[in-house]
Structure formats: structure tokens, C-alpha cells
């Protein structure tokens, strides 16, 4: 494979392209001849609207396009996720009304908040497997359309217990995060995956901000038609419910699982091999990096989810703002996701171009720690303007860290990509459940103290990123392995398959991915433009 | 981005306007004249363990200015409010009693507000039907006497200093509605069925594709 850099004008080594005649040797290839070169007229990749790599993943990201299948998958994915965020946090800005209707205590509200994010711990795990086995479309559609009944059932809620149960069930739909990230990861190539995942995740997360504006507005409009407040808030939940059903239908009719088609069709025609769940699960769980990402995401996304639940009430109660104004402030937190998370993904990609995977890891650590420090400041701010400033800086730091983390996650495993997305995503919810339980569910800490303590815990729990080490690329403090075999991407990704599976050629997808991931070496990948052949002697001299 | 800057700037300005009213914010509850108004609130249904229904039951409120009131010439308006008893404030910091009047959240529900007529010296009364947005809880009634600058100067309440006597309980409306319940079930069923239809259909198409 010729690393994609060499095809760009002016990139280092492009003027010498072809001189050594060693370019474009594939160790393993499904198709004959190189296919990552410019599109040829008889090339099957010519049917795509965007330039693609050897796995038919798009090499370019065009957010304003809806072209099949790549950009369409992107838009369907992030909008589905956005809708689920709206539903999950729809209760938060209405809590001042709900707490009066259902006679809730602070403990009840805190517990419901924990429940709203806990359901997704399990559903995100399950979603990873569902995506690997059934494809991203059905993963998304299941999540949307099976949790819509839970959203509608807010009309039946009569006390603290049923309120908690319904919020728990609605929370299951946050699994769309995993299906969305999985979908973009199979549709877009590694070089831009940080930016693409950052945009999809960030724009989806914005739902948590939009809901803080949308729900009070819907509530107000329904009240104008004459309903009492205690009925109006129940009816307001119909809006997120409708959105979920509509998105589910759109995903099923307009979307496509993989660049080449839908999973079930491709599996039946033999182009994509079906993998065994037990193997997928084992390789995800066995990899220690998965668990470090689990903790890290728990304190970037986890903190963000917690804030979505508590910030509106915090500004309402502490600074005596109206429901409407508190909603606007709370919304700004979530809306910062629009640029903050893509920025994190982009920063990760830029760092990778310069420093490889080590750059990605450093970017992640810096962004997450800075965000957590601003969270500590937010809790200590006693005047409104300072609190808002601290909150905005905190939101940018934490959300960018989320984006940067998903610049790293796709490289942890190829075979278990879906399950790792699922586990990491579950970690986010787990972290949110833990922080809400520890700091916001009892009268032990005031909300302000809780915010600062949560920031401290986040700083501490970001330190494990220093322990993520890739033999072929290094880690924050260690250089890549000098070992002949272990320093190759193929060794790392091939290691997920047994010899028997390799002899059957089941690992070819991973090898293609390994070749495409050479870019994670940073500038060294460009300087060492020519990949070392697998055999000792070169094919051509 | 520009919108956010605008929002931040406007909030900054708002908070500065607020802080310029600093002098009024330090008005304390303890500065008010206690017992200047004598007020009683009699629920339409009384008895041991009776819970009033919001939207249905009434309170009959009788009030008059106490003979011991010293700030009586300043009274301009009387504001009558429904307040939470201590038991309804437990584990609910949004209903907390604070000494600073602007922070105090224990009396959020307005019953009535009318101008004070100094010529009428006898007790006056009126009826109040519990609003449908009153939450479930235990309450008492308090009346504030407000001067021309809209500052509270005196108050009286239907319970004693410790807020233990003459309390009444209210049960809120549920807010549930049969039509809402039915609509909810219909849409839920539609969602699940639509998904199953798509799923089964596609499996069938894939099987047909394979058999070709």
C-alpha cells in the first residue's frame, strides 16, 4: 500500500514516487492489483461519490453532502444520536415542574438522574455486539424505535418510583452512540476518523443542550392551549417520541450498513464473513486499553452527561434564574458540542499527522485535564458571569476530550471495533452514574461542592491514559517497540486471529486496516514512505 | 460563536443591573414586624387526616390588622401567600427558608394581592380555591404588608412561630389524562410494529437474493 500521503501534491516523497519501484506492494489483497490509487474507469470504487480507500471507506469528509452511502450514513447516524439525547435529557429542564407534580425529594431526583444514564451501560455493550453481527442500521433503528414507547409512557408516571423506572428505560436509547460511531468508523478512513467521529459525536451530544431549550418551549406552548402544568409536561414528551419514530424509519429506508451494501446481503453473498460473538467479545475484553478508555470516557462523557442532568437546576436554584433563563444557560453547555467535539477530533488528527499515535494520546490527556480543572472552578464560582465563563471553558475542554478519545478508539482493535465502541460508550454512562450517585444524590454536598469534587475526580481518573501503549506506535512516555515483528501494525491487528483463522483468510480485513493505519506513525510514516515488505527480500530490485 | 458571545455579554449586563440593586437585596425577614396582621385560614373540609384536593377544595381566609401594629401607616398592599410547612421542605432545597427575603423560597404560591384600605378596621375575609398547580404538601398561609416601594414591612401567618399548628395538607392533581394515555399506547405500538415489519421484510428479501 502506498500511504495516502504520497498521493497528495507536495507531500514529502511525492516527487520521488515510483523511483524505487517498491510502492504498492500488498502483502495480502482480496482484489488483484493496487486499488488505493486514483480511481480508474473500470474500478468498482468509481461508483462512489467520494474518493475511497482499499476498504471503500471515504477519504474525504464533506459535511454538506448527503451522498450515498458515506455522507448519508454520517447524517443519519448523528441525527439519530441527537434525537436520543433529546429524549434522555428531556426531563432535566422540566424537573422544577415534575418535582412538584410527583412530590419528589432531592434524593428521588438524583436517583432518577443516575437511572437515566445507567440503562445505557448495558445497552451500549449490547449495541457493540449488535453492530458487529447485524449492522449499524438495525442497531440504530432498534435503539430508536424500541425506546420510543418508554418516552411516551411518561404520561403514566405518578410517583418517584415510576418516574425513575421510565427514565431508566428511556436511557437505553443512548446506545445509538455506539451504532453511530460504528457506522462512521466503517464508512470513513483512519486519517480523518478523528474529525468525522468528533463531528458525529459532538453534533449528537448537542441534543443534550437543545433539549434544555426545546422542552421548556414545548411545555410553554402546550400550556398556552389551556393545559395545566401537570398535564402539559407529560404531553411535551410526545415530541421526542415522534422524533424517534421518524428517525428510525428514515434510517431503515435511506441508510446502508457498509460502503458496499447492507450487511445481510453482503453476508449472504459471501463478501463479508460472519464472525463469532465469543471471539469478538474475548478480544475486546482481553485488551487492557479497552478498560483504560472505559475509565477515561467515564470522566469526559460521564461528566458531560451528569452536567446535562444537574446544570439547569443548579443555575435555577443557586443564581435564582427563571426556568427559561436557566434553560438557555444549560443549553449553552450542550451546544458547545457543535464545534468543541469536532475540534477535539480534529486536534487528534493533526497531532497524529505530526507525532502519530503518541500525539493523539497527549492531546487527549491535555484536553481532558484542562476541562476538569475548569469544572473545579465552576463549582467554586459564586457570581453568575464567572460561573458561565467557567462552564463554557469546561464544556469546550471536556467535549473536545470526548472527540480526541474517539480518535484513539478505532485503533485499539479491528476485529472487535463495535464492541470496543460499546464498552467505551458504556464507560461514559458508568462514569456519569458514579458521579451523580456520589456527588448529586444526597444532601451531603451542595451542588456547587459536588461540581468541584467531580472535577478533582476527573483529573485523577485521566492519568491512566499514560499507560496506553501500542508496540508499533508507542505511548505518552515510551517510544515504539524496536522489535522486528512487534513494531509492525500487521502484527498487532493480526494478533487478534488464530493461525487457523488466518489460514482461512478470515483476517484479511484486519490486514487491510493495518496497512491503512500506517499513518499513525506520524511524520515517520511519510519519511519511511515505503513499507517494509513482509518477506526478507524485496519483490523488485 | 457570535451568538454565544452576545448571550454572555447580555447575561453579564443583566447581572450587573441586578447587583446595582444591592441595597434592596439585604432586606431580611427578621427585620419585618411580626404579628402585625392576624390571619386565619380555614379549609372547607376539616378533621383528623383530611387531605384537601387541589382544584376542588377551598380555604376561607380571614385577616385584620393587629392593634399592636406600629408600621400600619406604611401599608399599601397586602400580599397573601401559601407557604410550605417544615415537613414539606425536608430534602427539598428548592423550598428552603432563607432570611434574605429575595432568596427565601418557602412561600412561592400567590393566593391574593389587594390594596390596603386603612379606613376599614374590621376583619375581612375571602375564599380561595386551591389552584391546580399546587404540589402535594403541608401548608400554612402568610400575609405580607408591603409599602409603596414594594418592600415588605410586616407580616402575619396562620400558624405559630415554629410552624406546627393549624397546618393543612393538600393533594395535587395527578396531571394524567385518559386521552393522553390512549395516544401514548397507540404510538408505542406503532413504533414497535413498524420496526418488526421492516426487519421481517428485509430478512425475506435477503433470502430471496441468496436463492437467486
UniProtKB/TrEMBL annotation, chain A:
The chain crosses the membrane at residues 76-97, 138-158, 164-183, 195-215, 235-254, 291-315, 321-340, 361-380, 386-412, 419-439, 451-470. The keyword Transferase does not apply. Coiled coil: none annotated. Residues 508-541 are annotated as: Disordered. Keywords: Membrane, Nitrate assimilation, Transmembrane, Transmembrane helix. It is found in: Membrane. GO terms for molecular function: nitrate transmembrane transporter activity. GO terms for cellular component: plasma membrane. It holds the Pfam family MFS_1. It is a multi-pass membrane protein. Residues 73-467 form the Major facilitator superfamily (MFS) profile domain. This is Major facilitator superfamily (MFS) profile domain-containing protein. It comes from Brassica campestris (Field mustard).
Automatic annotation (TrEMBL), chain B:
Pfam families: NAR2 (PF16974). The chain crosses the membrane at residues 182-200. Keywords: Cell membrane, Membrane, Nitrate assimilation, Signal, Transmembrane, Transmembrane helix. Residues 1-22 form the signal peptide. GO terms for cellular component: plasma membrane. GO terms for biological process: nitrate assimilation; response to nitrate. It comes from the Eukaryota. One of its GO terms (molecular function) is nitrate transmembrane transporter activity. InterPro entries: Transptr_NO3_Nar2. Involved in nitrate transport. Belongs to the NAR2 family. PANTHER family: HIGH-AFFINITY NITRATE TRANSPORTER (PTHR34806:SF7), HIGH-AFFINITY NITRATE TRANSPORTER 3.2 (PTHR34806). This is High-affinity nitrate transporter. It comes from Brassica napus (Rape). The lineage of its organism: Eukaryota, Viridiplantae, Streptophyta, Embryophyta, Tracheophyta.
Amino acid at each position: 500500500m502506498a500511504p495516502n500521503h504520497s498521493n497528495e501534491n507536495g507531500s514529502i516523497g511525492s516527487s520521488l514516487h515510483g523511483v524505487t519501484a517498491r510502492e504498492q506492494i500488498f502483502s495480502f489483497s482480496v482484489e488483484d492489483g493496487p486499488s488505493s490509487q486514483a480511481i480508474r474507469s473500470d474500478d468498482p470504487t468509481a461508483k462512489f461519490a467520494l474518493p475511497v480507500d482499499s476498504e471503500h471507506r471515504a477519504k474525504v469528509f464533506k459535511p454538506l453532502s448527503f451522498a450515498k452511502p458515506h455522507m448519508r450514513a454520517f447524517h443519519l447516524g448523528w441525527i439519530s444520536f441527537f434525537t436520543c439525547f433529546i429524549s434522555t435529557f428531556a426531563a432535566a429542564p422540566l424537573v422544577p415542574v415534575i418535582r412538584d407534580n410527583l412530590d419528589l425529594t432531592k434524593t428521588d431526583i438524583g436517583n432518577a438522574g443516575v437511572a437515566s444514564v445507567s440503562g445505557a451501560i448495558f445497552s451500549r455493550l449490547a449495541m457493540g455486539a449488535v453492530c458487529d453481527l447485524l449492522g449499524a442500521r438495525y442497531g440504530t433503528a432498534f435503539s430508536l424505535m424500541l425506546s420510543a414507547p418508554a418516552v411516551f409512557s411518561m404520561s403514566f408516571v405518578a410517583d418517584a418510583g415510576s418516574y425513575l423506572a421510565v427514565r431508566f428505560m428511556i436511557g437505553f436509547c443512548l446506545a445509538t452512540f455506539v451504532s453511530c460511531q460504528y457506522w462512521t468508523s466503517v464508512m470513513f478512513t483512519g486519517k480523518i476518523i478523528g474529525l468525522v467521529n468528533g463531528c458525529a459525536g459532538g453534533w449528537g451530544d448537542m441534543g443534550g443542550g437543545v433539549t434544555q431549550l426545546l422542552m421548556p418551549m414545548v411545555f410553554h406552548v402546550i400550556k398556552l392551549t389551556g393545559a395545566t402544568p401537570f398535564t402539559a409536561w407529560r404531553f411535551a414528551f410526545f415530541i421526542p417520541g415522534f422524533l424517534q419514530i421518524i428517525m428510525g424509519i428514515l434510517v431503515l429506508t435511506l441508510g446502508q450498513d457498509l460502503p458496499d451494501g447492507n450487511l445481510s446481503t453482503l453476508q449472504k453473498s459471501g463478501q463479508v464473513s460472519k464472525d463469532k460473538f465469543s471471539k469478538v467479545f474475548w478480544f475486546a475484553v482481553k485488551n487492557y486499553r479497552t478498560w483504560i478508555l472505559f475509565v477515561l470516557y467515564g470522566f469526559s462523557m460521564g461528566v458531560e452527561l451528569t452536567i446535562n442532568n444537574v446544570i439547569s437546576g443548579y443555575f435555577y436554584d443557586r443564581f435564582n434564574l427563571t426556568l427559561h433563563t436557566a434553560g438557555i444557560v444549560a443549553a449553552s453547555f450542550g451546544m458547545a458540542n457543535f464545534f468543541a467535539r469536532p475540534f477535539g477530533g480534529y486536534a487528534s488528527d493533526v497531532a497524529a499527522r505530526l507525532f502519530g499515535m503518541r500525539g493523539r494520546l497527549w492531546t487527549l490527556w491535555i484536553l481532558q485535564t484542562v476541562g476538569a480543572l475548569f469544572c473545579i472552578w465552576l463549582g467554586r464560582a459564586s457570581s453568575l458571569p464567572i460561573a458561565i465563563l467557567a462552564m463554557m471553558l469546561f464544556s469546550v475542554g471536556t467535549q473536545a476530550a470526548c472527540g480526541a478519545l474517539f480518535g484513539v478508539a478505532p485503533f485499539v482493535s479491528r476485529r472487535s471495533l463495535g464492541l470496543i465502541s460499546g464498552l467505551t460508550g458504556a464507560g461514559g454512562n458508568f462514569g456519569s452514574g458514579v458521579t451523580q450517585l456520589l456527588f448529586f444524590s444526597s444532601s451531603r454536598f451542595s451542588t456547587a461542592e459536588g461540581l468541584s469534587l467531580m472535577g478533582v475526580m476527573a483529573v485523577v481518573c485521566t492519568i491512566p491514559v499514560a499507560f496506553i501503549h501500542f508496540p508499533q506506535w508507542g505511548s505518552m512516555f515510551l517510544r515504539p517497540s524496536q522489535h522486528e515483528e512487534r513494531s509492525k501494525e500487521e502484527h498487532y491487528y493480526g494478533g487478534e486471529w488464530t493461525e487457523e483463522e488466518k489460514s482461512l483468510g478470515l483476517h484479511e480485513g484486519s490486514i487491510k486496516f493495518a496497512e491503512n493505519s500506517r499513518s499513525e506513525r506520524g511524520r515517520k510514516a511519510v519519511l519511511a514512505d515505503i513499507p517494509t515488505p513482509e518477506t526478507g527480500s524485496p519483490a523488485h530490485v | 460563536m457570535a451568538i454565544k458571545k452576545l448571550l454572555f455579554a447580555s447575561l453579564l449586563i443583566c447581572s450587573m443591573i441586578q447587583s446595582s440593586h444591592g441595597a434592596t437585596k439585604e432586606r431580611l425577614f427578621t427585620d419585618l414586624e411580626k404579628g402585625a396582621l392576624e390571619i386565619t385560614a380555614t379549609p372547607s373540609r376539616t378533621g383528623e387526616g383530611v387531605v384537601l384536593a387541589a382544584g376542588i377544595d377551598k380555604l376561607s381566609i380571614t385577616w385584620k390588622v393587629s392593634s399592636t401594629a406600629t408600621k400600619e401607616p406604611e401599608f399599601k398592599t397586602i400580599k397573601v401567600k401559601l407557604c410550605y410547612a417544615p415537613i414539606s421542605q425536608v430534602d427539598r432545597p428548592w423550598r428552603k427558608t432563607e432570611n434574605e427575603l429575595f432568596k427565601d423560597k418557602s412561600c412561592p404560591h400567590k393566593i391574593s394581592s389587594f390594596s390596603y384600605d386603612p379606613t376599614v378596621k374590621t376583619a375581612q375575609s375571602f375564599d380561595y380555591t386551591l389552584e391546580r398547580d399546587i404540589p402535594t404538601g403541608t401548608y400554612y398561609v402568610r400575609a405580607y404588608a408591603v409599602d409603596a416601594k414594594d418592600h415588605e414591612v410586616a407580616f402575619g401567618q396562620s400558624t405559630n412561630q415554629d410552624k406546627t399548628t393549624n397546618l393543612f395538607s393538600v393533594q395535587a392533581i395527578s396531571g394524567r389524562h385518559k386521552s393522553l394515555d390512549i395516544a401514548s399506547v397507540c404510538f408505542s405500538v406503532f413504533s414497535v410494529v413498524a420496526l418488526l415489519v421492516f426487519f421481517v421484510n428485509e430478512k425475506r428479501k435477503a433470502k430471496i437474493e441468496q436463492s437467486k
